[in-house]
Specification:
By secondary structure, this protein is α/β, with parallel strands linked by helices. It is built from 4 helices and 22 strands. Helix content is 16%, strand content 32%.
């Protein structure tokens, strides 16, 4: 949805609406408008245009500048707008370019030791999400890297970043072979819980132990994480079907069995707080609901050792049931 589609009229209270009504009445009287004098078509068009113009003049200025997109519980800080000693790249618009996959078509690259990117928090938060990109390996399997985080100039912690879940190549369904060319999926995200207050300075810095050739930073999000949700009524828990919520054991079969049972019983699937390893595509029947405890609490992740095989990645695939040539695939994820 773009800004034009989000146009909305806001009168900013009864007084503004009253002014609009009085203005309309005034224009009506001044023009001598009544049922008997609407014969002059051009004159009517001019009067209508004047009336519309005056109405729009009273539309709230904020409404005209309404931002596109959904209302979300986090605040985004674009790297290109931050204070940085790195290189600001973009905008870029062509497939395969790093900037093309960035939220603002631009990003900051840290490639020399001691280069940084930093911003000042404008609100309280207890969680930070960083969208980043780091180099792939020549065999396409990716590697783990580190990057240091500072708050108010003091070292806070070392972040673990990876390229094992990014960098796909070639044509659809894509692969992990760099020789296939046409790279895509160039960014990943890392998130952490960290208390922050307004005015606190948050910095990412490439120090000597951070050995990636470069770190591409797209954005950072701040938010306050809500508590985990409770299991809804009329639902089946994946734990009842043997799912491991620690991320050690493979939860794929348990999730599939739970979905099958929920579908046959007319119930929903409940994924409690935890980390679940998924190693193959999950086929989802129509009219199924899968609910977790919240995006900070219920997490599906893949096995990096199997990621080179596209059929072994985390993928939710809905099944289409056709009846009288009409597809039905009511799928709900929350």
């Amino acid at each position: 949805m773009n800004g034009l589609m989000r146009f909305a009229v806001a009168f900013d209270g009864p007084s503004r609406l009253t002014k609009l009504m009085r203005l309309c009445a005034g224009i009506w009287r001044m023009s001598g408008w009544n049922v008997m004098n609407l014969n002059n078509t051009m004159n009517c068009i001019k009067k209508i245009s004047l009336l519309v113009f005056c109405c729009l003049a009273l539309v709230s200025y904020d409404s005209l500048l309404a931002a596109p997109g959904a209302v979300v519980p986090w605040t985004t800080y674009e790297a290109e707008d931050m204070n940085t000693s790195g290189y600001v790249s973009g905008p870029q618009y062509y497939p395969g370019f790093l900037g093309t996959e960035c939220s603002g078509r631009r990003f900051v690259q840290l490639y020399d030791t001691n280069q940084f990117v930093e911003f000042t928090a404008n609100q309280s938060a207890d969680a930070l999400v960083i969208r980043y990109g780091v180099p792939d390996t020549v065999d396409g399997l990716g590697a783990d890297y580190t990057l240091n985080l500072y708050t108010n100039g003091v070292f806070a912690q070392t972040l673990t970043l990876t390229s094992k879940y990014s960098w796909l190549y070639g044509n659809y369904p894509f692969n992990n072979n760099p020789n296939s060319g046409s790279s895509r999926n160039l960014f990943d995200e890392v998130r952490l819980k960290i208390p922050l207050v307004p005015g606190e300075l948050v910095r990412l810095q490439k120090d000597a132990p951070n050995t990636a050739a470069y770190y591409n930073i797209d954005l950072m999000d701040l938010e306050i994480v809500p508590g985990p949700l409770n299991q809804p009524v009329n639902s089946l828990s994946v734990l009842s079907y043997g799912a491991d919520a620690t991320g050690i054991g493979d939860a794929t079969t348990a999730l599939k069995n739970c979905i099958s049972a929920a579908s046959s019983q007319g119930k929903s699937v409940w994924v409690p707080a935890g980390i679940y390893k998924i190693t193959s595509a999950i086929n989802l029947p129509s009219n199924i609901t899968i609910q977790g405890a919240g995006m900070w609490h219920s997490t599906f992740f893949g096995d990096p050792a199997l990621y080179s095989n596209s059929s072994r990645r985390v993928a939710l695939v809905y099944q289409r049931n056709f009846l009288y040539s009409q597809p039905t695939f009511n799928l709900f994820l929350s």
